[in-house]
Amino acid sequence: MSEKVRIYEVGPRDGLQNEAAIIPTSQKIALIDLLSRAGFEKIEATSFVSPRWVPQLADAADVMAGIERLTGVDYGVLVPNLKGAEQALQAGADEIAIFASASEGFSQKNINCSIRDSLLRFEPVMALAKTVGIPVRGYVSCIVACPYDGAVEPGAVVDVALALHDMGCYEISLGDTIGAGRPESIARVLDAVLAHFPAGQLAGHFHDTCDRALDNVRTALAMGLRTFDSAVGGLGGCPYAPGARGNVSTAALNALLLAAGYETGIDQQIVEEAERFVAGLLAAERAPSIAHSHHIVQEVR
Ligand code: HMG
Ligand code: MG
User: Fold this and answer.
1) Which residues of 111-143 are buried (b: 16+ CB within 10 A; e: fewer)?
2) Would you say 213 and 16 are in contact if contact means Cβ atoms under 8 Å apart?
3) Phi-psi group of 211: left, alpha or beta (phi > 0 → left; psi -120 to 50 → alpha; rest → beta)
4) Which residue from 25, 26, 59, 271 has the least number of CB within 10 angstroms?
5) Which CATH superfamily is domain 6-286 in?
6) How far apart are CA 36 and CA 67, in angstroms?
7) 8-23: per-residue pLDDT in tens?
8) H or E element: which one contains 227?
9) Whose CA is nearest to atom 46 of ligand 1?
10) Model pTM above 0.85
11) Domain ranges of the chain
């Protein structure tokens, strides 16, 4: 039997958080319901962050209440603090994800505090998660470069990854937030992180700003990683990381993995159907301005 690679679908969170238009809640629910049928074990459905910071996902509780939960699918959500974690649990999230940056500039701009303070903020989140027995995933952002501070040293990534792991995160997702990575720089940071972690505890979260995400996936695969985050239709970015374009496209990632002989369990036809759904959704939301829609289509490409 061929070896399994897990695809963690993050489009409903990482994708829709960065859309200029506010997508109607019913459409977000329809997208997640469609993705649920594609075979993902894990879907990041939304985030419980400040609605003033990310108005696009202010309907997180309604999305969680509206989706059809399929057996075998874990619906995760991103949380920045205890308040978000409490809301996530109330909404019935199957797992939560916390996120810290390897660079100070991004930490300040994204969550309004230093790296150290963000880690302190996560302690009560971890305590709550432990009490209720819910798994926590940890993201490290800016593993190669930061939109504010420039190049990031692998040692800084290792420090944050270890801190998240020591707090109890079951998996560390390594985020090339602005897609600055190339196979060489990704290999350099993975080398450093793999000196401290088994590959099975890591995930690759590659944005595709410079069309390098698939090359970076190949590099990470060769180095032993077997979990990758992706977004349907290549949606995504981060509102506080200028230039961050979409996550690697789920259809492209799945095609790459299948062609390389891995098993993913993902139905490519349903993913493509979900891509068309997203394209239609965005076209409808962007219809009022031709200039605007042209700009975004390029971003989502
Ligand atoms: P702050 O303004 O410093 O926080 O924001 P605060 O504690 O002073 O609270 C301000 C207001 O927000 C208060 O409301 C709080 O109650 C409320 P007010 O009293 O003024 O009405 N608030 C909340 N409301 C709902 N849910 C919450 C919450 N927390 C506070 N959880 C804060 C600090 C962290 C809250 C804010 O900066 C924030 O929400 N940031 C999130 C930004 C974000 O979501 N970025 C995108 C996700 S990260 C990413 O995309 C990268 C990733 O994909 C990996 C990669 O690619 O590298 C994960
Ligand atoms: Mg991201």
Assistant:
1) bebebeebbebbeebbebbeeeebebbbbbbbb
2) no
3) left
4) 26
5) Aldolase class I (3.20.20.70)
6) 9
7) 999 999 999 988 888 9
8) strand 227-230
9) 238
10) yes
11) 6-286
